């Protein structure tokens, strides 16, 4: 009888050092930063002939690319109805009824999410992971990606995965 398996991929040395601020109906945070820790849980049946769920050599470059892309940048949500964004080649201006921020464009990552909370960031990164995985992983059934601001504080997004 086949038994489903799971594994968690986490590297202590992998973190995204990013700035952000949360804007909601009840909260407007000052700009601050975190060293986000990322992990992914993968569920399914071992790849036939390999006896593993996924090859770590396929995961590592995805996570390393994120580190290069996002490190030392400020996350700004583009779908937050409470923020007015003016985007140019030189700068990103964010206006809220009580705050105004202006960032050099080169120091910003515009995320197509509603807010830069770990809940939304985990969903965004999970979507990116699904698109980046090689097509040969039709053995997987579910992916769960966690983003943590601190060791004891994280949020996760998960989705069924039946290959591409």
CATH class category name: Alpha Beta
Q: Count the strands?
A: 9
Which term fits the overall shape? elongated
N→C terminal distance: 26 Å
Number of helices: 2
Computed structural class? alpha+beta
Task: Give your account of this protein's structure.
The protein has one domain (5-80, 111-160): Tetrahydropterin Synthase, Chain A (2-Layer Sandwich). 18% of the residues lie in helices and 45% in strands. The protein has two helices and nine strands; from the N terminus they run E-E-H-E-E-E-E-E-H-E-E. The protein has helices at residues 56-70, 118-132; strands at 5-20, 32-44, 73-77, 84-87, 91-96, 99-104, 108-111, 140-150, 153-160. Strands 7-3-1-2-8-9 form a six-stranded mixed sheet. A hairpin with a 3-residue loop joins strand 4 (84-87) and strand 5. The radius of gyration is 18 Å and the shape is elongated.
Structure described in brief:
With 164 residues, the protein is of the alpha+beta class. It contains two helices and nine strands; from the N terminus they run ββαβββββαββ.
What key phrases describe this protein's structure?
alpha+beta; 164 residues; elongated; six-stranded mixed beta sheet
Write the layout of secondary structure elements.
Blueprint: E1 5-20, E2 32-44, H1 56-70, E3 73-77, E4 84-87, E5 91-96, E6 99-104, E7 108-111, H2 118-132, E8 140-150, E9 153-160
Parallel strand pairs: 1-3, 3-7
Antiparallel strand pairs: 1-2, 2-8, 4-5, 5-6, 8-9
């Amino acid at each position: 009888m086949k038994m489903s398996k799971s594994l968690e991929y986490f590297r202590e040395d992998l973190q995204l050092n990013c700035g952000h601020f949360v804007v909601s109906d009840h909260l407007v945070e000052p700009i601050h930063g975190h060293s986000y820790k990322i992990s992914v849980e993968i569920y399914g049946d071992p790849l036939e002939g390999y006896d593993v769920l996924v090859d770590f050599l396929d995961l590592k470059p995805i996570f390393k690319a994120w580190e290069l892309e996002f490190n030392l940048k400020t996350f700004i949500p583009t779908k937050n109805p409470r923020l007015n964004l003016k985007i140019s080649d030189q700068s990103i201006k964010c206006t809220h009824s009580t705050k105004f921020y202006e960032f050099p464009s080169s120091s910003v990552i515009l995320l197509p999410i509603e807010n830069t909370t770990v809940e939304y960031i985990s969903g965004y990164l999970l979507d990116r992971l699904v698109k980046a995985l090689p097509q040969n992983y039709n053995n997987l059934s579910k992916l769960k990606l966690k983003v943590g601001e601190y060791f004891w504080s994280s949020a996760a997004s998960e989705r069924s995965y039946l290959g591409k």
